[in-house]
Design goal:
331 residues; 6-stranded parallel beta sheet; 10 helices; globular
Length: 331
């Protein structure tokens, strides 16, 4: 870091890259300096759309661009290991979209690369950086609902998705679990840590990816989590945390909430709402700010999205996939 402005590179030009870049350019201390795609035409079109000065038709040129402070990797997750690894090996810091990788092995390789090169690395689990989620976690940690007993969360899309769609493609890490289920699983991890027991059932597509999955996680404390994800039906996308002395309910869009309700025995329900100054509920600016804060502080990982936590989530996702019989090419 040589200036207060953090210079970003964007690797990939799909929908999530566009959403993140749109949020990023509204931050006064962020500069989107370059974008890379597998084709120069795609990179140039993206650069023109967002006013980005440099466009590269390959990943390697962006990875070697010494004027970039951090690269946001927004490829499909089947390419995260290759894209993020290329950047880390070239000395770039990396924010890598969720799910972090296809599996724990790939995730551990990226973490090792980052630590060996002394580079910053973070999974773009924007839920963990959301001010309302942070507030909820603080309440739970402070004992507002007593000892956590159960966590419930779901994330389902209505579909249907044709067999040609990336969500149905094993070669692209398709299925409900990695794309959608990562949110309920990460939410349970946030509140309870890594589970000691994992069981799951799923409905698989003809291609061998999960169309919907139900997972039950357990902890030595006696806590349980009931989690569900689906490509076959739009769910409420809600979450609830029940403790020995109360409950917190999060309405639709639990992974980027603008409110939640705290229920405590003998008290009226308390509604917590987002501060308008924090921006719209769907903004990705919170995770971008956390990356920039960490870089300025000389940190190589974020306390909000620690790498060991990311590895633990990947370990749980691997365990769920083992239970439901989903394997990807090359595994």
């Amino acid at each position: 870091m040589t200036t207060d402005t953090v210079r970003w590179g964007i690797l990939a030009t799909g929908g999530i890259a566009a959403a993140f870049t749109a949020d990023l350019i509204d931050l006064p201390d962020a500069e989107v300096a370059a974008v890379a795609s597998r084709t120069e035409d795609s990179a140039r079109a993206f650069a023109e759309r967002f006013g980005i000065p440099r466009a590269y038709g390959d990943w390697e040129t962006l990875a070697k661009d010494a004027d970039i402070d951090v690269v946001y990797v927004a490829t499909p997750h089947s390419a995260h290991r290759a894209a993020a690894g290329l950047c880390l090996e070239a000395g770039r810091n990396v924010l890598c979209e969720k799910p972090f990788t296809l599996n724990l092995r790939e995730a551990a390789e990226l973490v090792e690369l980052a630590r060996d090169h002394g580079r910053f690395l973070m999974e773009a689990m924007w839920m963990y950086c959301n001010p309302m989620v942070r507030r909820l976690k603080a309440l739970v940690d402070d004992g507002a609902i007593g000892e956590v007993r159960t966590v419930q969360a779901d994330f389902g899309l209505e579909g249907p998705f044709p067999p040609s769609h990336r969500l149905r493609d094993p070669a692209q890490g398709g299925g409900a679990l990695l794309d959608l289920g990562v949110y309920p699983v990460s939410f349970a991890h946030l509140l309870l840590g890594e589970p000691t027991g994992v069981s799951a059932r799923a409905v698989l597509s003809a291609e061998g990816v999960d169309l919907q999955t139900a997972a039950a996680l357990s902890w030595d404390s006696g806590a349980l989590a009931a989690l569900h994800c689906s490509l076959d039906g739009g769910t409420g996308t809600t979450a609830s945390v029940t403790g020995s002395r109360g409950r917190i309910d999060i309405p639709a869009g639990f992974f980027h909430p603008d409110r939640f309700v705290l229920h405590r025995t003998g008290r009226d329900p308390e509604e917590f709402t987002a501060d308008p100054a924090d921006g719209p509920r769907a903004t990705m600016q919170h995770e971008a700010r956390e990356v920039m804060r960490a870089l300025r502080a000389g940190e190589t990982e974020s306390p909000l999205v620690p790498l060991d936590g990311t590895l633990a989530v990947m370990r749980t996702l691997d365990a769920v996939r083992e239970r439901i019989g989903v394997r990807y090419p090359g595994e």
